[in-house]
Amino acid sequence: MIADFLLHPDAGRLFAKVDYALKNGIHIQNYKHQTDLFRFINENQASLQQYYKDYFNIVLDFGGESVDKYFYINFMAQSRGNIPEDNRHFMPNEFVIIGFLLYKIIFIDGYIELNTVARLQKMIRLDYEELKPGIYRTLAKAKRDKNTKMDGEKVDKIIEDAMQEFSKVGWIMFEGETFDTMPSFHRLPSIYSDYIHNLNDWFKEHNS
Amino acid sequence: MDKPDHHNFDFLSEISKGYTYHLLFPDPKAGLAIVWLYQRIESGVFLDKTFTEADIHDALQAVNQTSTGVNARYSWEVYNRIIADLQEYFLYYDESRQVYKLKEYANEFCRHAYNTLKASFDPTIIEKICFNLRERLEGYKEKGDLTDWFDIHFKTFQPVLRQQIDHLDRQIDHSVIEMRQNLNLKDRNITAILKKIDERFDLIRKQNNELRAGFSEMDLIRRVLESFAVQNEQELIGDLIFDAILFFQEMKQTLALVDSRLDRIQPKVRQLFTNLNKPLFNSRIESFLSRLISHSKITIAKGSKKTLEFPVGIKRTELHGPEMNFIIFERKKDLFPLKAKKRFIAEEDEMAKAVAFSGFKEKLIQQDVISNWIDKISQDLKVNDSVRFSDYFFAIVEQRGEAELTVAVSLTYRVMRFFEQHALYQLSIQSDLARRPDNNISLWEMTIQKRAV
Question: pTM of this prediction?
Answer without folding.
Answer: 0.55
